[in-house]
Amino acid sequence: MANLAQAIRMALHYGEEHLGVTDIFGQDVGAPLGGVFTATQGLKTAWNTPLDERGIIGTALGIAYAGGKPVAEIQFCDYIYNVIDLLKLCGNAHWSSAGEFNVPMVVMTPVGSGIHGSMYHSHSFESMMTHIQGWKVVMPSNAKDAYGLLISAIKEPNPVMFLAPKALMRQKGDELIPGEPADEKTLNAMINAPLGDRTAWTPRWPELTDFSVPIGEAKLVREGTRATVVSYGRMLPICVTAADDLAREGLDFDVIDLRTLYPLDVPTLKRSVEKTGRLLIVNEDTEITNYGEHVMRKMIDEAFYSLEAPPVLLAGLDVPGVGLAWGYEQNSVPQPEEIVNAMRKLATERA
Amino acid sequence: MAQATPSPAETRSQNGAAATSSQVAAPEPPAALHPPLTPERKVAMHDLMVKARATEEMLIRMMRTGHGYFWIGGPGEEAFGVPTGMLVHKGEGPDFDYLHLHYRSSPLVLAMGAEPIDLMRQMRSTATDPYSKGRNFVNHFAIKRWNVVPVTPTIETQYVVALGTGRVQRRHGGKGLSIITGGDAGTAEGDFASCLNWATRPGEELPLLILVAQNFYGISTPAGQVQASPDIAQRAAPFGIPHRVIDGNDPVLAYEALAEAMDYIRTERKPFCLQGNVSRLYGHSSSSGAQRHAERDCVLEYEQRLQDEDLMTKAEIEAVWQRWQTLLQEGLAQVIQEPMPGKEHVLQHVFYEDKITQLQEN
């Protein structure tokens, strides 16, 4: 099975071949590296930029204005903060121009902790990003969704931020991407650049087909009755494992993978919360003005009288960064045991 | 390439505006790609300069008489902006010029053919404002059919957005270029340096015309307090970009300099940086009172020149003013009757294809 980085690579290839992608670019995105996570290896429209995030986002906006289809990368979201005003412009161009211009562009950036990334390779960005209007924001938790969400993002006539959970980049999927060879070694031989000199290397792409995960559609990945667990990205598989473990104790959960953070799939959340009466939101962003607070507020608005217990947000501590030593990350970012405990407590709390 | 830069004393007269100065820049273009500045075109240029000045003065009057919240614009930049607008290859798509403008670009856009009444609509924030539907300040244009991408108040971002349109044009081929306008203050931002760097990547040079309107102020701060040299265009030198500083109050000199720069870019597909030293006749904006300042007036100077050259009489000049002022007055009567935006407009255009229902659910 393809891993998440390979899934991104294949979606971009599909975009180049079938969806009009004209430029895939960013720091180290082109040859020879093909991205620090290898997600852009072998792509025919990939090119290297100066180490200049403002130039990268400005160029993407200009290409979109001129009829191109750019996919820009900011190497880590920790380095995206100096382009916030440009992201604002991308998001407000359609509104401020009274509908005259639209901005069909995609920005990809790796987010989150889990790779010993220290203070500047561990930030989360969804709480910031969902506060920038005019953008759609997606975040996969597995390879197949990464493929389908990125294809949807490329098809969008509006700007889309594709947040890639960096700790899952090497995580293999458990479902084949349409067109992906069943044998993993075959896939690797076809699309992975060799180590060392790769100047003569060209990929052999599989015959990929269109597969879209619609933007705005969450997925119920575990079904239960005791509580609703809402998560996305890196935290999602941890929540799934927790749900599977607790099922052996007789506690079953709805686990919802949001996949799209904006626009939020309110109907799917509402259906689940009305059924379970309990809500836990899990993410690794810092807890103050956390995106999960928005999810909570929407459920208070939409399903208050179904709630049997106070909704809970389990998020990162409100500290300036994720420290390098394991003790920092372990004690500031939600860990599997904490998630299990939070789920068990919520499911067994008296109504 | 660039010659020695004149001293600030040479580039600026006592009243705060520019005198003449110039720097040699590009190699000779192979053939002129622009219309020559014939006597008829000189007269037409005057008409457009008056159109721009009279429009801006009407906008200021509107602000003063309660027909708008805030004014900012470009009176004093007519001699630099109007020739630019006259030389633009106007249309939609990469075969034509892209315009990445700042908010003092009314002379340029009016010279391209914009209707003054549309600026008045934006000034009054009417729902009929074609550039922003009453959402943005006046002189914040967005005209897709002419490649005028949305103007923003950020003053520097246009320098990096132009890198994208320039890239598309480089790939597309043809003669189209991307024109960026900005003031001296905005060049202090890093985006100006980004523009110079990205535009000259080896083998990936971009067809950009980088225009700097040096008015010697950033809101209230004199340029001399915050910039080592008033000749911003010099910053292009280390990048190998041809550059030149001119008297932006001389429309004939500006026309020729702009035409030469554009011909170079259209032919060589490489950037050029041209600085025009201009006046800021009504200060920064209405926030500083929009009072008339004692700086050189390029329209008055040009009118004297046209009379000296026997191209126009005083009566003909007065008739031009009269015609535009009458049109503007009629425009005002029209604009004040037009509808204002309301609740029904708020959610329009948040996303392309107006998914209002979806938004309300979220």
Give the helix tally of chain A.
Answer: 11
Number of helices of chain B: 13
Count the strands of chain A? 12
- Computed structural class of chain B: alpha/beta
Query: Beta-strand percentage of chain A?
Result: 15-25%
Mean pLDDT of chain B: 90
Describe this structure in words.
Chain A has 351 residues and is α/β, with parallel strands linked by helices. In chain A, 34% of the residues lie in helices and 16% in strands. Chain A has eleven helices and twelve strands. Chain A is globular and about 65 Å long. The N and C termini of chain A lie far apart (43 Å). By secondary structure, chain B is of the alpha/beta class. The model of chain B is unreliable at 1-24 and 356-362 (pLDDT under 50). In chain B, the strands form two sheets. A five-stranded parallel sheet of chain B has the order 1-2-3-7-6, sandwiched between helices. In chain B, strands 4-5 form a two-stranded antiparallel ribbon. The chains are: A alpha/beta (351), B alpha/beta (362). At the A-B interface, α2 and α3 of A face α6, α7 and α13 of B.
What would a concise description of this structure say?
The complex is a heterodimer of chains A (351) and B (362). Chain A is α/β, with parallel strands linked by helices and 351 residues long.
Key phrases:
heterodimer, A: 351 residues, alpha/beta, seven-stranded mixed β-sheet, five-stranded mixed β-sheet, 11 helices, 12 strands, B: 362 residues, five-stranded parallel β-sheet, two-stranded antiparallel ribbon, 13 helices, 7 strands, globular, disordered N terminus, disordered C terminus
Show the helix and strand layout:
The complex is a heterodimer of chains A (351) and B (362).
Chain A: H1 4-18, E1 23-26, E2 46-48, H2 53-65, E3 70-73, H3 84-96, E4 106-111, H4 126-129, E5 136-138, H5 143-155, E6 160-165, H6 184-191, E7 219-222, E8 227-231, H7 235-247, E9 253-257, E10 260-262, H8 266-276, E11 279-286, H9 291-303, E12 312-316, H10 326-330, H11 336-348
Parallel strand pairs in A: 1-2, 1-3, 3-4, 4-6, 5-6, 8-9, 8-11, 11-12
Antiparallel strand pairs in A: 5-10, 7-9
Chain B: H1 8-11, H2 39-64, H3 78-87, E1 98-100, H4 106-112, H5 116-124, H6 158-172, E2 178-183, H7 190-198, E3 208-214, E4 217-218, E5 221-222, H8 223-226, E6 243-247, H9 251-268, E7 272-277, H10 298-308, H11 314-335, H12 343-346, H13 356-361
Parallel strand pairs in B: 1-2, 2-3, 3-7, 6-7
Antiparallel strand pairs in B: 4-5
